[in-house]
Amino acid sequence: QTPEFEWMKDNAHKYGFILRYPEGKEHITGYMCEPWHYRYVGKEVAKEIYEMGITFDEYYELFIK
Fold first, then answer.
1. pLDDT band at residue 65, thresholds of 50, 70 and 90?
2. What value does the mean pLDDT take over residues 28-36?
3. Among 12, 13, 22, 43, fewest CB within 10 Å belongs to which?
4. Residues in CB range of 38: below 8 A, 6 or more apart
């Protein structure tokens, strides 16, 4: 993992982005880890997903569906 990827993992949520398919969550997302695949969800949602340590799929099931 590059320093840039580490920075993105630690800071992307501050700008409203989440890592869409994180490592270790393949059974939830249905996709292998894609370290280049970020999704804009807005700062508030990104912060919640980051702080809860969940995927967008889990967030969707808990709060949107």
1. confident
2. 96
3. 43
4. 8, 12, 17, 18, 19, 20
